[in-house]
Amino acid sequence: MPANSALFAQTLTQWTQGTWLATVPLWAWALVSALIIIYMLALPFGGIATYIERKIAADMQDRIGPNRVGPFGIFQFAADAIKMISKEDYVPPGGDRFLFNIAPVLVVVGSCAGFVALPLGQYLVAGDINIGILYIMAVTTLIAPGILLGSWASENKWSLLGGLRSAAQIVSYEIPVALSMLPVILISGSLQVGEIVKQQGWNPADPIHANAHFWNVFHNPFTVIAFFILFVGGLAETNRIPFDLPEAESELVSGFNTEFSGMRFGLYALGEFVDVFVMCALVTTLYLGGWQLPFLELDKFWITLPSGLIALIHVGFFMGKTLLLVFVVMWLRWTLPRLRVDQLMGLCWKGLVPISLFNIVGTAVWMWAFKGQSMIQVLGSLFSGGSASH
Amino acid sequence: METGYISAFWFVVIAAVTVPLMLGVGALLRPKGITTKKGTQAYECGEDPVGSAWVKFNIRFYVVAIIFIIFDVEIAAVLPAATLFREAVLGGQGAFVFAELFLFVALLVLGLIYCWVRGDLEWVKGVTKYAPKK
Amino acid sequence: MSNGMKLILLIAELVTVGSALIVAINPNILYSAVFLLFAFLGVAVMYLFAGADFLAGVQIVVYVGGVTILILFAIMLTQWLYRLKLKDIGSKFVIPGVVLALGLVPFLHRGLTELGKMIQATPPEKMAEFAASPKTQAIGKALLGTHVLPFEAITILLLGALVGAVWLARPRT
Amino acid sequence: MNVLDFANSIEGYLLVSSVLLILGIFAVLTRKNAIGILLGVELILNAAGINFVAFSKYHSAALEGQLVTLFLILIAAAEAAVALAIILRFYRLKQTIDADEASLLRH
User: Fold this and answer.
1) End-to-end CA distance of chain B
2) Which of A7, A355, A370, C108 gets the most CB atoms within 10 Å of its CB?
3) In this complex, is the C-beta atom of B25 within 8 Å of any C-beta atom belonging to chain D?
4) What ipTM, to 2 d.p.?
5) Subunit contact D78:B70, Cβ cutoff 8 A
6) Closest CA of chain B from A77, distance in Å
7) What's the structural domain count of chain B?
């Protein structure tokens, strides 16, 4: 019996029960869910994020920022999009046209396809496949070849140097990122993202106490460290400041996208912001409880809430946590200076990798010693005389 | 096969179609007849580019990629065992899985120590060594 | 499996074969490497349809994210040697290569036609059940149980490969 | 047999795998560039992987084939790392990566 893991499509099917849409097959709803998430969440986020980033930058530097297009300049991103779309489509004459065209495709696919396994709400995940974490790791690897090939095809020294730095940086930081996901896998015993989020609820009445252990970041002292390593590694993987060496404008003009202009540059920038969102959403999902509310379970509330409202609240909490992390990413941009290449590699291989290896052993020992219970559960059972432990 | 992969398929298709779609919309919207003059060069700060853009680069990038691929493969290999750990611990027999995980970490640490001690993680080592003596 | 799914599998197989063809005959080594990436992706989809979901993920993580990057680095590092003579095909063994490659065709054709008689018939429902079951934990159990020895051997081999490869690639004065 | 059913049968998988094998052997023998030879080797290894996975589903409906493919992928990555390191070493010694030039058993 094949498992139905296209939960978003299934939800759409259920909501349209009894209407004329009831006969639409599941694959069509899957297409609709993909359209909704990419065209109504991912790409608009990529656009609005440029505006938000400029506003935040302006606030931090005591400027006003974009304020001409619409109230508070809120339509600035639309104006930018129109400008980029109507610019000349330029391919460098000495470059490689085929690779130049294929590189943005790899970057956009690599960043957008990650959304499949991100649970926006309990039932609003496009595909809750059982290799979820591995799937996200797999599709995001497409970005590095895309950047490398695009920089090569530009026939520009700055581009090539930026692309090489970017590829080396992305692959290096993939190791601490993957190693920092391992503690979560040890705690949850699953690669399935929906299952991981479900376990991060709070339910002391659960017969197996370890099944609902609050957010993973508070599971034990080591996961707190792993959470920060995952976030820092994610910053580096998305080429954000302080790890923006691939596009360091003071040394490499604009790095790997120097020769990309108009909408081609727009697609790169869009891919980068979407990738930032995916990274922050992944941190939220793995460590900050995804759509889970602290200490509340809406399903078992004293009034029965309508399912649509619950779904909305879940999506709201998920987006809130994720956007908070996105804000931190933008905040860091105006706080920290850029690293040097040797510092970058040193931080990764001599700092983050050993610490995350230590975290794995630490988490395993904690799991073994406390039968999979989290810090809060252990403290709780101490105060209640051990009666809560099974 | 799970139905979730159908969603994944559509995501990949739509993301891949988005790129030519946006470039195509641009081709329809943008003013015609204004094109950059032929013979434009790579943008290198306004200077004429010297030599080929496809320069030789530092071999360190390559060594890092080699170290990366071995670590990556080891992580992929340990994932299935890691998913069993919770079940084994709750069932009271975590020792074997723990030993396996510990061996995995120990091997990675050994490899890391080797690269560290032999200086493969020092980014600027090659440059300083080849620098002319004063 | 519905016809649409079969069509996706067919497309993946065609992409794999077509990309492999370009890998083999394209004179530009960089294009060969790029199409090798697409061949890897096609093979990953084929794994997925054969019920190997975990393997499909590992295939992409290791091959697309690792091996392809390594090959692209190697090509970009050495490309100034052969950019002037793009015609890369043409070693001493072109004629033996063509002969051997074509000579394998009848054997493989015979093998394929005889195959239906040789393999034992697996009931379709058992096949479908196997293809639909999640594999990650099953593979983990096998790696810690029946196949623990080759698994440990391979992890040690990987350590040896790391030491050897880094030693070979290290710059010397 | 319908072409869609053929794609979803063991014959379809084995046809793809044998085409990959043939193309891989062809690439290994005809490439001058040592990296090109490595590309051919990767094709051959993927052909073997497809075979194991296909038999794992269609023949035995058991996990052994997938385990062999997992080992194969792991070893293939190590092989790629070592092979490319050797190519790099050769390139530094001879300033070429033409495999026909690699005819000495010493350096």
Assistant:
1) 67
2) A7
3) no
4) 0.89
5) yes
6) 15
7) 1
